[in-house]
Amino acid sequence: MSANGFNSPGQPGDQPARQPAAPSPEPADRETICAVATPPGMGGIGVVRVSGPATAAIARAVCGRLPAPRHAVYTSFADAGGTPIDTGLALYFPAPHSFTGEDVLELQGHGGPVVLAGMMRRLVELGARPARPGEFSERAYLNDKLDLVQAEAIADLVASGTEAAARAAQRSLSGVFSQRVDEVQERLTALRVFVEASIDFPDEEIDFLADSDVVERLEATAGAIHALLAEARQGRILRDGIELAIVGQPNAGKSSLLNALAGADRAIVTEIPGTTRDVLREWIDLDGIPVHLADTAGLRETGDRVEAEGVRRARAVLAGADLALLVVDLTEAPDPQLALLDEFPDLERARVVFNKSDRMTRDQTVPATAVPATVVSARTGAGLDSLKAAIRESVGAGEQTEGGFSARQRHVDALRRAERHVAQGRARLVDEGAAELLAEELRLAQQALGELTGEMMPDDLLGAIFASFCIGK
Ligand SMILES: Nc1nc2c(c(=O)[nH]1)N(C=O)[C@@H](CNc1ccc(C(=O)N[C@@H](CCC(=O)O)C(=O)O)cc1)CN2
Ligand SMILES: Nc1nc2c(ncn2[C@@H]2O[C@H](COP(=O)(O)OP(=O)(O)OP(=O)(O)O)[C@@H](O)[C@H]2O)c(=O)[nH]1
Ligand SMILES: [Mg+2]
């Protein structure tokens, strides 16, 4: 039940020993694959990688001999007639001690598109086929060298746009995230064993149900998932940035705020309520975190079909946002505006922005709010720096840069599903005394986590994940 073991690049011995491999099914793919592993164009060195059962035969044909395992050998790479296509270093990694777990050959020649194309033609002639994007990583995953979170971390490391993102991806790659998921899986396994045993011995079920220890353990597990979820959300933010919805009643100054934050005249601003209809997107870089702003139509009931569609879209943006700013016009009655908070899906991810502070009267005070608030003037720029700092803080960015790991929306969704099933399971037990229903919820929670690390993963989803990798990865 426990997940795949980890390979920890750079720090071997740091991670738990690999689980003894389950009787492994025949490798999913017996074809030998090849790809140029270095970027296209001219470069100092160009690397071609080969993986699969024909690798040793290919090495003999191209290099004239099989290089000693894991030793760099200087050799020429011969075409079918024995003429060198290039000279360079050959590296042979016999299975299972390679990146993919299969026999791997690396031919490190001179970078250049023509030479590399010639090498690829030769490898195909010898029976290899060009790899699909991500296929080397996919094989590493299928051969238990990496779990899915780690394979995704490789792609995220390559694609990372900031140093913080790269460090986080490196930590996921080293197994930090996967290990935390495995710990939760182990708790769930222990609970399932206990719960299912009690179902098998119905006479003792009464005792079991009275045993508050199970409820405590359920709560502790829910707490562990909740903490992991919070960290995964942070990890996703480092990778993807955050979606920030700007909502409020018409004329509150939402479009003015977007323009002020973006430092550009992007959105149309008029004194006519109902100016914005389409969702207008702009992004800003907030100390290395991409913040994707969405300016929306003012929330109100309206008979105008176009505006009504805008309001519908505004609500959709609000539902999907990582953080939502409710812009409140200080020159208008605050209460009906603050009542819009009732429409927010999650008050933990909401802020109030009191706008038009330049028009505040001398004795005017700002009302208390259920969520944190900032006072600004989109017109003069007053308060915008505090708002930016508050945005960073609301999403916890900054705390994240040390010790965090990278994560994707897919991971966050899976953790949320697991959290929900554990909560539902607890309710089944406490409210209904239904141990069987609890067992089922625990099974579903484990399944959600299994999809996260890829232990239980539908093939088409796997295909979609690896297809987004680079060729040669
Ligand atoms: N030249 C080259 N550099 C590269 C890669 C590569 O494939 N080739 N990598 C490609 O992404 C990354 C390194 N990843 C690797 C991961 C595992 C093994 C490997 O041989 N693993 C064996 C042995 C481990 C050991 O000796 O400790 C194994 O897991 O059994 C090699 C590279 C980055 N640098
Ligand atoms: N005095 C003052 N006026 C502002 C401020 N921000 C916006 N306004 C004015 O308020 C009016 C509405 O501004 P918009 O930014 O278009 O408001 P909105 O919320 O996008 O409005 P809709 O798109 O209609 O929902 C305009 O006349 C702006 O010039 C501010 O900070 N101070
Ligand atoms: Mg507007």
TrEMBL record:
Gene Ontology terms: cellular component: cytosol
Cofactor binding mode and count: Binds 1 potassium ion per subunit.
Sequence positions that bind GTP: 251-256, 270-276, 295-298, 377-379
Localization, UniProt: Cytoplasm
Segments of this protein annotated with the region Disordered: 1-29
Main location: cytoplasm
Any single biological process term in GO: tRNA methylation
Ranges for domain TrmE-type G: 241-396
Residues at which K(+) binds: 251, 270, 272, 275
Gene3D superfamilies on file: P-loop containing nucleotide triphosphate hydrolases, Probable tRNA modification gtpase trme, domain 1, tRNA modification GTPase MnmE domain 2
Alphabetical list of InterPro entries matching this protein: G_TrmE, GTP-bd, GTP-bd_TrmE_N, GTPase_MnmE, MnmE_dom2, MnmE_helical, P-loop_NTPase, Small_GTP-bd
Cofactors required: K(+)
Binding of (6S)-5-formyl-5,6,7,8-tetrahydrofolate, residues: 49, 106, 145, 473
UniProt KW Magnesium keyword: yes
Subunit structure: Homodimer. Heterotetramer of two MnmE and two MnmG subunits.
Name of the protein: tRNA modification GTPase MnmE
Source species: Elongatibacter sediminis
Origin organism lineage: Bacteria, Pseudomonadati, Pseudomonadota, Gammaproteobacteria, Chromatiales
